[in-house]
Amino acid sequence: MRRAILAVTATVAGLVALLSFKTHSSSERTVATPEPSASLPPGERAITGNVANTAYGPVQVQVVVATTKIVKVNVLEQPQSTEHDLQIGQFAFPKLIGETLSAQSARIDSVSGATYTSGGYIKSLQSALDNGA
User: From the centroid of its chain, how far is CA 78?
Assistant: First the structure.
């Protein structure tokens, strides 16, 4: 009988502790700020892609091109409704940008775990490259 009372008390105490747990939430949300076109070196130009709407929010990129080579990619807009959206962006965008600079095109692989964000990135990137052609 004592074991049952002890087990019930421990269970209730554990549930109370679990339900009172609050996750950390940040009210600060950051979006990469694009460089103004005026500050680009001679011979480089910035091309902004169309906004690609995903299930989690919009994605928009800007590519900086020197002659026909992609030298930089800026993420102008990204999903940021939740902390998880921001974490996915922090994880996925550097990989996507690295692949873009290596491939020099929009023919890149999606990042595992960020399929929708990757799709939006690729769609916006392709539109930027089409606009610059």
Answer: 5
DSSP 58: E
Structure tokens at 113: 């775990």
What is the DSSP pairing of strand 44-48 with strand 52-54? unpaired
Q: How many Cα atoms within 13 Å fall on the side-chain side of residue 91?
A: 13
Enumerate residues 6+ apart whose C-beta is below 8 A from 80. 29, 31, 57, 86, 89
Rounded to whole angstroms, the Cα distance separating 46 from 105 reads 15
Q: By three-state DSSP, how is residue 104 classified?
A: coil
Alpha helices by DSSP H, 35-114: 83-103
Q: What is the pLDDT along the chain (133 residues), one digit of tens a residue?
A: 888 887 778 787 776 666 666 554 433 333 444 444 558 888 899 999 999 999 999 999 999 999 889 999 999 999 998 999 999 999 999 999 999 999 999 999 999 999 999 999 999 999 999 988 6
Helix (H, G, I), strand (E, B) or coil at 100: helix
